[in-house]
Design a protein that fits this description.
The protein has about 425 residues and is mostly beta strands. The chain has six helices and 25 strands. It has two domains: about 160 residues, Immunoglobulin-like, CATH 2.60.40.650; about 180 residues, Alpha-Beta Complex (Sulfite Oxidase, Chain A, domain 2). A hairpin with a 5-residue loop joins strand 24 and strand 25. The termini are close together. Bound molecules: the ligand Nc1nc2c(c(=O)[nH]1)N[C@H]1C(S)=C(S)[C@@H](COP(=O)(O)O)O[C@H]1N2 and molybdenum atom. The site of molybdenum atom (MO) has 6 residues, from loops.
């Protein structure tokens, strides 16, 4: 294994897995690829049919204002869609699809591109028939209609939702070729909703009430236990995303928002909140949403999503196609604890780091956008990003994660991702070791 020279093509180095490792060693990687951004060369004016010919859209009237009562993206953007990996799950109703992170910019995920994860398909709920009940250890059990919920003072907040299994396939080695598949179980929208605290206060939580059971109205009747402290802190009962009604796949007409915590607690199609004095035993919590350690013991109650980042461009689905010269590298960073204060980028597999430029709003428990504008000299790159949050937590290497938690884990993989950019711009998912 150690004979492999730096600069070799990544390869499958483990029988039985498709792990691809990229060995770091010598110094053929161009650190010189780092010169500051140059000015983008404008094309010298030449006869160009795009200019000299009259295009179709220049000759005929377009569609009228009645053509698209609910708009859709340009037909030239057809490839920008959620995608699933059929072999990951047995059927599409208990499954997941992925946000096309490499096609997006800024920090907001458009509603139609938010990844979906459900255990029993998308429930189609009639809002007029939907009820939210609060019962258990409360002074007054309550039932709210959707109209009732809209009468409470509401708030707007941008939060990321990340499934605990995001990047889970990558624990044992580089696996899926694209950030959509390695990191696409995350989305970030602005929610409008009523603070959960307001509704709980309305019902009057008894002093013995320490836990909340949140239940969904879908066929899986998914339930999750949430500690009262979190419920009273920043959770929302949300009915809007990015200004419009929740999409059916995101829990229409109402879902729980549990900022910074793993996605499975964000119960969709929320119909019941039961206050109790201890956590409930969920069918899935011990089997699916618990981290198995090497020792065979499990980490339970690992709810916060740790500081994490990924370069979205270039990446395997978004290679460099423009050749050497000014290149915009960009990506996303987030922390379930608060804001991201710093992202560093390496082009040589983690030996040298330079600060990236954070741009756009820096909101707590939200995605952050970073850029690294550089002048690519056309040599091979091993791209990595490393995020730090406002509490000084730094994103770990995959190796450090494996040392801490072994190789059996799936959940909470916030390790540093590496992309290998070849001289022709083609980009692959690899690991440096
Ligand atoms: N009622 C209900 N809520 C649910 C689920 C579900 O299957 N049913 N899946 C959970 C999981 S595992 C995740 S990661 C998030 C995904 O939210 P999204 O579909 O909006 O991306 O919803 C959570 N809430
Ligand atoms: Mo999840």
């Amino acid at each position: 294994m150690s004979e492999q020279k730096p600069g070799n093509r990544p390869r499958t180095d483990r029988p039985g897995t498709s792990r691809r490792a990229f060995l770091r060693g010598g110094s053929t990687l161009a650190v010189g690829a780092l010169a500051g951004a140059a000015t983008v060369p404008a094309h010298a004016a030449q006869p160009d049919p795009a200019i000299t010919e009259i295009q179709e859209w220049n000759q005929y009237l377009g569609d009228g204002v009645d053509a698209f009562p609910y708009g859709a993206p340009s037909s030239f953007e057809k490839h920008v869609i959620r995608r699933n990996v059929p072999w990951l799950t047995a059927d599409a109703t208990a499954s997941v699809n992925f946000t096309p992170l490499h096609e997006l910019d800024g920090i907001i995920t458009p509603n139609g591109l938010c990844f979906e994860r459900h255990h029993a398909g998308i429930a189609l709920v009639d809002p007029a028939q939907h009820r939210l009940m609060i019962n258990g250890l409360v002074e007054t059990p309550l039932v709210f209609t959707m109209a009732d919920l809209q009468r409470f003072p509401r708030e707007n907040h941008v939060y990321f939702l990340e499934c605990a299994a995001n990047t889970g396939m990558e624990w044992r080695g580089a696996q899926l070729n694209g950030c959509q598949f390695t990191h696409g179980m995350v989305h970030n929208v602005m929610y409008t909703g009523v603070p959960l605290r307001t509704l709980l206060q309305e019902a009057g939580v008894k002093t013995s009430g320490k836990w909340l059971l949140a239940e969904g109205a879908d066929a899986s009747a998914m339930t999750r236990s949430i500690p009262m402290e979190k419920a009273l802190d920043d959770c929302l009962v949300a009915f809007k995303m990015n200004g419009e009604a929740l999409r059916p796949e995101q829990g229409y007409p109402v879902r729980l928002v549990v900022p910074g915590w793993e996605g499975n607690m964000w119960v969709k199609w929320l119909r019941r909140l039961e206050v109790g004095d201890q956590p409930w035993h969920h069918r899935e919590e011990t089997s699916k949403y618990t981290d198995l350690l090497e020792s065979g013991k499990a980490r339970r109650f690992t709810w916060t999503m740790d500081v994490k980042s990924v370069i979205t461009n270039p990446s395997p689905q978004a290679p460099i196609t423009t050749g050497p010269g000014p290149t915009v590298l960009t990506g996303l960073a987030w922390s379930g604890l608060g804001t991201v204060t710093r992202v560093d980028v390496s082009v040589d597999g983690g030996r040298n780091w330079r600060p990236a430029r954070l741009d756009g709003p820096s909101l707590s428990k939200s995605l952050h956008r970073f850029y690294y504008d550089f002048n690519w000299d056309g040599s091979e790159l091993l791209l990595q990003s490393r995020a730090m949050d406002e509490f000084g937590n730094v994103q770990p290497t995959k190796e450090a994660l494996r040392q801490a938690r072994g190789e059996n884990s799936i959940y909470h993989n916030n390790g540093i991702q590496t992309w290998y950019v070849q001289e022709n711009g083609v980009t692959e998912n690899v690991e440096v070791s």
